[in-house]
Amino acid sequence: MSLVRVHNFSISLDGFGTGEGQSKDAHFGHAGDRLHEWMFATRFWQPDGSGGVDYVFAREHEPGIGAEIMGAGKFGHPGWHEDPEWKGAWGPNPPFHTPVFVLTHHTRPSIEMEGGTTFHFIDASPAEALETARAAANGKDVRIGGGPTVIRDFLAAGLIDHMHTVVVPILLGRGVRLWDGLEGLEKNYVIEATSSPSGVTHVTFTRTGAGTAST
Amino acid sequence: MSLVRVHNFSISLDGFGTGEGQSKDAHFGHAGDRLHEWMFATRFWQPDGSGGVDYVFAREHEPGIGAEIMGAGKFGHPGWHEDPEWKGAWGPNPPFHTPVFVLTHHTRPSIEMEGGTTFHFIDASPAEALETARAAANGKDVRIGGGPTVIRDFLAAGLIDHMHTVVVPILLGRGVRLWDGLEGLEKNYVIEATSSPSGVTHVTFTRTGAGTAST
Where does the record place the Bacterial bifunctional deaminase-reductase C-terminal domain (chains A, B) (predicted)? Predict the structure, then answer.
């Protein structure tokens, strides 16, 4: 059985996965780039980047993934569905290289991008979306790409096998929280924390009995 | 100038410093002992305990402290002020061994305990309470003992020089949050995270230019 995985999902020390005030020019609202600077500084993002613990965690984003599911808020700013030309926030060659299923009430025809990414738009529950993504993933794993609301919904539905979150030492104060309504989640997972010299802490959740990720 | 310090303040991964449903038999509500098991397992708490990173952080609770300030919710369960015999949750010899200033709207005469702890009851703002505690601390540092609301109030007032929090890998889901309303707190502190083999992560805040703690 292919696994359902979350990678590189960054949150502030106070638990926000995105800031307040998301717009076309501020994909993460008032958080800006601050939740992801740890990743930009690694070889996962740039050739001259660091190769330590932040890098080895970051690169796990890719291997073995056959499809991604993302929320409408990751695909674009509030209101993107009113722009027929909107093709996501990543330019002509998005960094997914697989089918990507965008959860939205405003479905539209699929968009084929360069580099193997195709955006599909579906209005579905987490379990239904996962069934669709698994069929497209050809036996590989499915990544849940965020935002926080989508990850929370998949966690609440018991659908996540492996999750890598990154706690960044800033206090955003406002935005969308990851952890709301997940009391007792630790009972189903082995949780490990690994602090990095960069200041972030990698926290992994591995479902008890979920086996190991394919590579 | 003596410093204002927080030590061993444990929070869940979702940021709760105490659980819901605090009572005489459940000092931390539905959290039970889960926020503090990391500390009970060390030599700080028991002779046969561990002596590693959890221990060296835990023992910093004591040296150089001349007084503590705590909230009414740490001193006792909701309603303790209606019990004239209530002397705190720690037995005849509380583990403070200094003057302790309890912030409460229900003041009462001071209570002298064994081992050097005296409980004083004051109805005061954070700044006023600190002035009083500093005078009693004889040049030593003042510890802010919690709970989460009190620490948050002192942080918001800019009064904390050094803070040691411990993130425990559980999701409480409900209770009292530490971090609410503290956006941008990181600007005034050097923040370090140190993960422990026990599973907790020690997160320290050191105020820029606050000097070093006395010992």
Answer: 9-183
State the count of interchain CB pairs (< 8 A) between A and B: 79
What is the distance in angstroms between the Cα of A122 and the nearest Cα belonging to chain B?
A: 30
Give the model's confidence band at B198: pLDDT under 50 very low, under 70 low, under 90 confident, else very high.
very high
Q: What is d(CA A22, CA B58) in angstroms, rounded to the nearest whole number? A: 41
How is chain A split among helix, strand and coil, in percent rounded to 5?
A: 25, 30, 45
- Distance, in Å, from the CA atom of A153 to the CA atom of A48, rounded to the nearest integer, reads 37
Residue B45 lies in a domain: yes
Residue of chain B whose alpha carbon sits nearest to that of A169: B191
Pull the structure tokens for residue A132: 């669709």
Write out the residue range of the structural domain in which residue A25 sits.
Answer: 4-80+92-207
CATH code assigned at A142: 3.40.430.10
Instruction: Give the ipTM.
Output: 0.90
Tell me the pLDDT tens digit for each residue of B113-133. 999 999 999 999 999 999 999
Whether A214 is covered by a domain: the verdict is no
Best to test chain B binding among A9, A12, A14, A198 (most B CBs inside 10 Å):
A14
Total of domains in chain A = 1
